[in-house]
């Protein structure tokens, strides 16, 4: 079987294949009846060792809309709290003969470790500061839809400049998006306070900035990230008020980007800190709720594709 551990393991044509495979699910999800039997009889376990709203719910909805039996394991209510190790937890889930396991974990590499211990496909729902591949895929799908809605071809993102601003240091979303956006032809700019910019990130091919106004100049897409206070380990960062002054996306500041620049945020947002409400809620520019919508379709495509081998169906890119 094959896992989905990170964008780093995907070829460009595989990313495009995943996006194309999600399109029929976007259509299905917009109908009143949203149920098919494609994964009927399969069991999917969502094992979440960290909090989540969007990723957990959309994986659960995705599995159920495809007809699978979906069960959720919340670490806070599990035997992890009694001292059971990650490997023993993985062996336990494996013994229940799941057909796919979706994992979120606070440690980078934990999902890869579990994948090496189980027999079924494993999907990374975010591991530490490493990768969040389905987030990058749903972001690409939301961007593609927004560009097509404006009459642009959007086969890929060649010629597009995307600025990602915020806590880059702790962001698996940024890492997966750098890889995904660049694979699809976009130029990526990263902007963060010095303490929140990973050392050596330029080697990934992105341009780095500490001045948000300079980073925004002419950007076609602005992706805002929250400060991940739960992962801070003594980094020197400005107060929330100062952060907002330097790095908050305001209506005024957005004028520095391209005239019709799109605004994205993976959520959860801290309104008034990294993004003002009047920007987050701009109907013609913000695609934040569309990102959430595309999350269900992308996760349906991923679950469908990764279980094909077990179902005896051809067709992974
Ligand atoms: N974007 C994202 O992963 O959100 P959740 O933490 O709510 O799943």
From TrEMBL:
In what residue span(s) does the Aspartate/ornithine carbamoyltransferase carbamoyl-P binding domain sit? 2-144
Q: Which Gene3D superfamilies match?
A: Aspartate/ornithine carbamoyltransferase (3.40.50.1370)
List the pathway annotation. Answer: Pyrimidine metabolism; UMP biosynthesis via de novo pathway; (S)-dihydroorotate from bicarbonate: step 2/3
Where carbamoyl phosphate binds, per the record, is at 54-55, 104, 132, 135, 267-268
Q: Where is the signal peptide?
A: none
Entry's EC annotation = 2.1.3.2
Quote the InterPro entries the UniProt record gives: Asp/Orn_carbamoyltranf_P-bd, Asp/Orn_carbamoylTrfase, Asp/Orn_carbamoylTrfase_sf, Asp_carbamoyltransf, Asp_carbamoyltransf_Asp/Orn-bd
**How does the annotation summarize its subunit structure?**
Heterododecamer (2C3:3R2) of six catalytic PyrB chains organized as two trimers (C3), and six regulatory PyrI chains organized as three dimers (R2).
Q: Which family does it belong to?
A: Belongs to the aspartate/ornithine carbamoyltransferase superfamily. ATCase family.
Protein name (record): Aspartate carbamoyltransferase
Species: Altererythrobacter arenosus
């Amino acid at each position: 079987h094959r896992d989905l551990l990170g964008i780093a393991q995907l070829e460009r044509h595989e990313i495009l294949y995943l996006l194309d495979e999600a399109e029929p699910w976007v259509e299905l999800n917009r109908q009143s009846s949203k149920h098919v039997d494609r994964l009927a009889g399969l069991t999917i376990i969502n094992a979440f060792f960290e909090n989540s709203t969007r990723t957990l719910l959309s994986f659960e909805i995705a599995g159920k809309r495809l007809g699978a039996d979906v069960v959720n394991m919340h670490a806070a209510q599990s035997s992890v709290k009694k001292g059971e190790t990650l490997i023993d937890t993985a062996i336990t889930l494996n013994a229940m003969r799941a057909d796919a396991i979706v994992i979120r974990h606070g440690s980078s590499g934990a999902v890869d470790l579990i994948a090496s211990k189980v027999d079924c496909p494993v999907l990374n729902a975010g591991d530490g500061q490493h990768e969040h591949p389905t987030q990058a895929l749903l972001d690409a799908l939301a961007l593609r839809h927004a560009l097509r809605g404006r009459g642009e071809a959007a086969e890929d993102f060649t010629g597009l400049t995307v600025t990602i601003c915020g806590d880059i240091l702790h962001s698996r979303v940024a890492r997966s998006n750098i890889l995904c956006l660049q694979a699809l032809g976009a130029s990526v700019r990263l902007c963060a306070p010095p303490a929140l910019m990973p050392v050596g990130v330029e080697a990934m091919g992105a341009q780095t900035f500490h001045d948000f106004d300079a980073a925004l100049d002419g950007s076609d897409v602005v992706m805002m990230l929250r400060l991940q206070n739960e992962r801070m380990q003594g980094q020197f960062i400005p107060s929330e008020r100062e952060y907002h002054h330097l790095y908050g996306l305001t209506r005024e500041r957005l004028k520095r980007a391209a005239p019709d620049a799109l605004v994205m945020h993976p959520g959860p947002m801290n309104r008034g800190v990294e993004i003002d409400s009047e920007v987050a809620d701009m109907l013609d520019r913000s695609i934040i709720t569309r990102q959430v919508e595309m999350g269900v379709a992308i996760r349906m495509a991923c679950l469908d594709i990764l279980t094909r081998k077990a179902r005896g169906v051809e067709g992974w890119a």
